[in-house]
Amino acid sequence: MTDLPQEPTPLVADERARSRLAMAWDSDVAYSFRRSPVALISTIVVLILVLSAILAPVIAPYDPFNPASLNLMNGFSKPMEPNAFTGDVFWLGTDDQGRDVFSTILYGMRVSLFVGFAAVGFAMTLGVTLGLIAGYVGGWVETIIMRVADVQLTFPAILVAMLIFGIAKGVTPVEYRDQMAIWVLILAIGLSDWVQFARVVRGATLVEKNKEYVQAARMIGRSSGAIMMRHILPNVLSPVLVIATISLALAIIAEATLSFLGVGAPPTQPSLGTLIRIGQGFLFSGEWWILFFPAVTLLALALSVNLLGDWLRDALNPRLR
Amino acid sequence: MLRRLTASAVAICAALPVMAEDFRWASTTDPQTMDPHAVNSAPVLGFLNNVYEGLVRRGRDMAVEPALATGWEAIGNGEGWRFTLRQGVKFHDGADFTAEDVLFSYERASSEEADTRSWFAPVSGVTVVDDFTVDIMTSAPNPIFPDSIANWMIMDSGWAEANDATRPDKEQGNYATLNANGTGAFKVTAREPGLRTELQPHEGWWDTVDHNITRAEFTPIQNPATAVAALLSGDIDMINPVPIQDAERLSGQPGVQVIQGIEARVIMLGFAQEADTLKYGESDGAANPFQDPAVRRAVAQAVNVPAILQTTMRGNAEAASQLVSPAMRGYSEPNAATIAYDPDAARAALAEAGYPEGFGFGLKCPNDRYLNDEAVCQAVTSMLSQVGLRPQLETMPVRGYWPRLREDDFDMYLLGWSPGTFDAEHPVRFLASTPNEEKKLGSWNFGGYSNARVDELLPMIQSEIDETKRQAMLDEVAAILQGETAYVPLYVQPLLWGARDNISLTQRPDNFFILRWVTVN
Fold first, then answer.
1. Do B165 and B282 belong to one domain?
2. Is a pLDDT exceeding 70 seen at residue B3?
């Protein structure tokens, strides 16, 4: 059991907690984090964006999802300039319906982040499970799982997501379509994303399953499920963490792409992608702010998550240390 | 060397389309079918006017002129019309045009499967007198009949029989949905629904050729910004419509022109009135408040039309007071006043009608049919929310929209109506008459509005020859529809086309794009 995380020596509860915190602080990963300005800045940006999305109802000056609060005469207000008819001032301007762009971005980011996290969670669960099974069980089970993965890899992820979205839209009753749209989006992105997890976990499992600690566990009669979950899984998790972070950025972009193409979040619950699609129609006529601010927000979000993922990959890779 | 070769290859490729007078145009909506009797909607009829022809057609000024008929006269005390047919006309496949084709096209276009059925409500029978003479009898004198059949297109009976398409099929489609064989100036040489449709001139066309196109290609481009970009880059020679927000900037660009006019189309809100319960109510079986004229009037008061015109339409449209625009014959001057925006009065009226807390309902809208249709519906949704109503908006492409309306799957909906006859009688027949399959009336009256006096006036309007008396009856109908708020007319839609500078064309007020008036310079 040499590769298992070290068993902590028995300590009283709060001492144990403190020592764990201290251990985390002194770990290689934390050290590399403290020394990397990119990681620090990315974390700060992600934290600000996530927090402002969570606190949107408190921060946002308007509720863009309440149609009764909109005044059409406020439409196309320029950023920081009083509207010609109503005199209202909007920080980032308004869209064609008189919706405050700043508030809409905050609410839109909630949809984008929720879809991103949920889709990655779903893809990770599915991919890790299938990868573990394929790697550990082998044989025809492995062949089937990995060939399905190979077939799916030959299609661009966005195409798979659109296909799943189309089928799901066809089978959902019309009156539930708007409520279902977000969940279908999560399903579609998750199903198009699991392959990466499965391939990496299978590879790592193939290496781990021949190691001595696994053989030892098998010898003392532990079941296959227990070996996979308790012994192999903890040792293949670090690459999974890296993929998950990078997948999060990709999932947010995939959601934006689908919504931009008009097959994602409904117009009544706009995500960042929906906002960019709406704004794109006004780009030629000079109302740049409707497109610009949601696009910059999406860029900042996806870029910082991606940079965090890159850093994490380097930090967890023993060869680059 | 290689570079020079490539350069000359590029030059040849660029020069070829110019020599061949290729013309490419784009619009938001693809005509759903090539069958001229299957769908009575402007994108279909407008497109097919280039391929098929009727007995009469409309000129550049919308006046009716001879087409497949060379002349017509009233017979039998005005209760019928004798059409003399043009001789030597060939269909695209080479077949001869005769009176049999007219009779066949009448039977086909007035059949139960046809969407154009209500055009023939006044017709009692069609008789073939000889190969080039046809009598069309009406059940009462009908002075405007020849005016009303400009979009009734003639199909070859032999071709339809040979291809098992003697009746239109708007649901499943048949041979005539994808193929066309008319007598018009252009024939369809390739058709990929939703992607592209290719037309080439019909060499055997009977009329003098006024265009110089050798090949034309239509592409539906749903995203207006994409269409503008394609026009600016020269990929497309003409787009319809130009997005309202881009009209001003586009007209200042070198190389392109914006052609602007007022369309005959009135955009309005319609209600489910026949239904006893709401389809999208907040509880199952909630009573339908739109049966009450006071509630419908409150809706009209709650919609701030001037704000829509100012912001969404950017000052490019005019408010509408009735189902037709002032440019139409029979427009009712005494009823020209619009209902003023008054949210307080709307709230008070709703409270008085028994809905102080408002109610929830479903609003259906197309999102690729009219200029800014989705944005207008979103604006209407927020305006109605401000007086306490709770509309649930659903927007969809037009190919799924009409079927939904026909299934009565709405509580309120958006509709645009352009009278094909350019006469105020047209919307009365289609939108205000009690729906009646047998009499072919009210076929687009989705909500089932019904008023006995309107039903009584319609045949009288149709057969009245005295202009003053006819106008008095049209005024009465307009007053009834306003009084009961049968519909909420919003505005008259503008016509905005964009074209390259080297294109000359004619913009007809019914928004039909007629290819035979296009010259590529």
1. no
2. no
**pLDDT for the residue A26:** 76
Inspect the interface and report whether the beta carbons of A284 and B248 lie closer than 8 Å: no
Q: Collect all residues of chain A within an 8 Å Cβ-Cβ radius of residue B381.
A: 67
Is the Cβ of A175 closer than 8 Å to some Cβ of chain B?
yes
Confidence of residue A319 (pLDDT cuts 50, 70, 90): low
In a domain, B183, yes or no: no
Q: CB–CB of A281 and B223 under 8 A?
A: yes
Which CATH fold would you assign to the domain A49-65+72-320? MetI-like fold (1.10.3720)
- Give the pLDDT of residue A174: 62
What's the pTM? 0.78
By residue range, what is the domain housing residue B458?
264-494
- Into how many domains does chain B fold? 2
Whichever domain contains B46, its CATH number is 3.90.76.10
Pairwise CA distance, residues B189 & B191, whole Å:
7
Residues B283 and B411 in one domain: yes
Does a cis peptide bond (omega within 30 degrees of 0) precede residue B293? Answer: no
Residue A318: band (very low, low, confident or very high) from pLDDT cuts 50, 70, 90: low
Would you call A284 and B375 a contact, using CB atoms and an 8 Å cutoff? no
| Ordered alpha helix ranges (H), B20-154 | 42-48, 99-109
- Helix/strand number for chain A, H first, E second: 14, 0
**Encoded tokens for B193:** 């629904």
Using CB atoms, pick whichever of B312, B393, B409 lies closest to residue A96: B312
Q: What share of chain B is helix, strand, coil (3-state, %, to 5)?
A: 30, 25, 45
When comparing pLDDT for A173 and A82, which is higher? Answer: A82
Answer yes or no: do A285 and B248 touch at CB < 8 A.
Answer: yes
Would you list the domain boundaries of chain A?
49-65+72-320
CB contact under 8 A, A284 and B246: yes
Within a domain: residue B506?
Answer: no
Domain assignment of residue B231, yes or no: no
A72 touches chain B (CB under 8 A): yes
Q: Which residue among A72, A178, A281 places its CB closest to the CB of B311?
A: A72
